[in-house]
Model the fold of this input.
Amino acid sequence: MPPPISQLDSLTMLHVMRSTHVVVPHALLGSALLAALEWGRTPWLPSLLWLVAFWLLLLALWGTTWRASRCPDHDDWQIAALHRRFAAQITCVGVGWGLAAWVLMPSGDLTYSLIVVLWGIAVSAVQGAMLSARRELFFGFVLPIWGLILLRLFLSPEAVFRWVGVSGAIYLLVLVQFTARLHRFAHESMSQRAQNTDLLRELMLEQRQLESYNAMLEQKNVELDQAVERISELASRDPLTGALNMRALMREMERLLARSETQGAPFAIAIIDLDHFKRINDSHGHARGDDVLQQLCVLVQEELADGELFGRYGGEEFLLLAPACNGAELSRRMEALRGKISGWDWRRWSGDLPVTLSCGVAAWRPGAGPQALLQQADKALYQAKEMGRDRVCLAREGEA
Done:
């Protein structure tokens, strides 16, 4: 739903209401002082009734302007509602000041009559200047005052009062011309302020949109990073067992060997092969064979130390990389793993067929590359199979 008023109207309405809020207390004091000055020269009851009614009107106006002074600048609906009430009240105040010429102006007493006229001049000048930003309010306030004052003066039987009325009419014309310039100046400055406010709002909106786009971009980047990480993870994992694949194993092996060459740290590998695995596939199907491979990986992963890597080397062969571990130590651990595998209850997958492994272990020596180390471990594995399987063999140092 569009706002009820423009930004320029909102600024000018708040300006006149907040300006009037400052002068209402002075109007309360001024009206009481005017009534006191004229007391005893006019009937006391109409004077008292005028003062009481006028004060109630000023207090209502003060309440409206007080709310306007605390109204947010961007609340156009509340500003419009307050302005409608203020317009009616300011016109009634103008009528109230004009009625002072009929209630408080003594007949035949030029001096005290001029006091009322001068009071009208002062009030219309001050309040008229503050209302100049809204010409309809200016005329709604000033015309009732001077309409009633001039009517009172021109209806007086004494000629001097009519001449005072002529002077008042001239003053009214001057006041209208003077405030017209104030009106143009106020509109120019507030129009510029409204443009700046609109520009600021547009900038804030664009900033919020930019922040929203940045947040979306950041979220997309996070999702993209996660996708890349996932793709990288999938590219380095065997799809059946979830263990590292051959490419990832070779990459990590080269890295660990380079570290051993640089730091002289021990490094050993083990090639693990399931014995007679083809019998399980032939007897119970490849699905059961896959289950055996997956469970083997679970059991091996449970035995890995920090920093050790395990993956599928090919078929039913697996490779274990053990940094900071020498050949003898890795052989002992593989022997314990061999016993764990052979003692596991595999009947749900292999039936009566046993599941055992053979393992070849090789230790790094300075200058040995990946292929040389793999050949040593593979030769040790072949030796384990030649010796009857279900055993661990350590490659002899210097053997290729």
